[in-house]
Amino acid sequence: LNTVMVTAPIVKRIMIARTIAFVESIDYRTNGARLVLAPHTIEGMAAADVPRRVRVTMRWRPDFAAGATLSATLRLLPPPVQSEPGGYDFAREAFFGGIGAVGNLVSRPKIVFAREAGYSLRLKAWIDRGRNWLTSRIAGVIDGEAGAQNGTGAVAAALVTGKRGMIPESANEDLRAAGIYHIVSISGLHMVLAA
Known about the structure:
Elements: H1 2-6, E1 15-29, E2 32-42, E3 53-58, E4 69-77, H2 90-96, E5 99-105, E6 110-111, H3 119-143, H4 147-150, H5 152-161, H6 169-178, H7 186-194
Parallel strand pairs: 3-5
Antiparallel strand pairs: 1-2, 1-4, 2-3, 4-5, 4-6
C-alpha cells in the first residue's frame, strides 16, 4: 500500500531544463546548500511526467528561504542506484521519499510568484525555516565566530535539529576517526537523545 501511495514520476535521463519550483527545504552547507524542491513545471516535460520532488545542490548561499517559489535552470538526472551488491541504495530511499530526480542548479535562481502551494508543502517549509533558524542560533551562541572553524556549535546544532550540513569537513573527519560519526546521523541522533 505504501509503495502504491508514494509512486511518482522519475526522470529517465540526464537533462538541463528551466524549472519553476516551490522550495520545500534547505540544508545549508559550508559552501552552498542542498534544496528539496516541489516542481510546478519543468521545461519540455509533460505535467504527468514531472517528479513530485527533486533534490538539488547549489554552490552559493541561497538568498531565499523555504517557502519561496523560484525559477532556475537545473541539471537533473535519475537518482543513482547502488554501486555494489548489498550497498547503500539511494534510488530506493529516493523513491520512498518521493524524489524523482537529483542534480544541481546551473543558473542563479530568481524568485517568482507562482500558483499557491498546498497546505502540507507550506507547513513543511515553515518547519524547515524554524529548523534552519534554530541551527544558526545554536551554532552562533555556542561558538560565535569560532563555530565556523572548529564546528563545535554546528555539531551541537545537528544533534538538536538534525541539520548536518554546516559541520565543517575537518570536524566530520575527526568524528569518523574517533568512530563516533554515527551520532550525527539520523539513527545515531535518535539513540543519543534516548540515552
